[in-house]
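QA checklist item 7 of 12: single-chain prediction sanity check.
[x] sequence parsed
[x] length recorded as 79
[x] structure emitted
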Amino acid sequence: MKTLTTSAHIEPDARFRVTPFADRANSFVSLRVEGDSVEIALIASLGTSEALRNLAAAAIEAAGALDVMAIDGPAHERM
């Protein structure tokens, strides 16, 4: 992965878009997260599908953690 550090808040109305670019010489997929003032584009080339699956698994894990925090409320913040 090429190194770049950035941060952005995912809002409830964030939009997600996948666009495949099937080029014989350089095929890739663009995965975009779009908000009101920020757009993040991840470019995944051939051979990186497992990395995208790991990203998806991490996103599911993060969503689960948020669900637990919503249930536990302030008590969870003491952890």
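[x] summary fact logged: The beta strands are 15-21, 28-34, 39-45.
[ ] second reviewer sign-off
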